[in-house]
Design goal:
The protein is an alpha+beta fold and 270 residues long. Helices cover 21% and strands 37% of the residues.
Length: 270
Amino acid sequence: MWHRIVLAACMTATLGTGQNAPPAPRVATPAVSFLGVAIQEIDSDRAKALKLPEEAGVEVTRIAPDSPAEKAGIKTGDVLTQYNGQRVEGMDQFSRMVRETPAGREVRIGILRNGSAQTISAKIAARPFIAGQLVPPTAPALQTFDYRFPDMPQSRMTWRSTILGIDVETLEGQLAEFFGVKEGVLVRMVNKDSAADKAGIRTGDVIVRVDDVKVATPADISAHLRAARGRPVSVSVVRDRKEITVMVAVASGTDRSIGQWRASSRTELV
């Protein structure tokens, strides 16, 4: 009986002060235009590695599944050089141009792929915000995809495998989660006509096993290559959150892995 009286009194007091008003509904702010590429700046080292005539454009480091970029045929490792006829100077400018393009509009994007220039058409999509949080598109393939690509300016150690013909770095923490792995080795660059290139390994792949043995660092890969002594090895990589295995023909000899510290550029998904 007493608890009913207390409850009624509380309700009366609340009604009198207007404090029982339901919380304001979360209102969606205008949608943000979205292409679906993670991009990074191109410095002099990357320009040389990608065989670019100059330090311009932005490099694609990741493609969001089922995004406008994937549907248009943009690939990891592409260099975006033009947007609707306008020269791409850097990340901030490219991101702004995408944001300022109305969702549903088709744009023409100039790219360089393996040194060859081409133009691709893509239809910009919308990515709404609700209460300050990005809401991913509702396509089933995107339900578990995290669109908040980690923005991590820091120093990183990149290694070059002379036998495989790749530049790699250790992948862990938040960045590993973004690629859908707990640990592994991220392929930063694949040399044309190298053993890795011929096997189908691509920039943006994450190497997780060599000959069914887990690898977490570039040194792990080098150790397995030395043990292989020139025989073909199986390399398992995670690509677009799916694991595939390829056979790599390994030349005999020592893998002269060269490590180099360099500052990583900011990476952003637009």
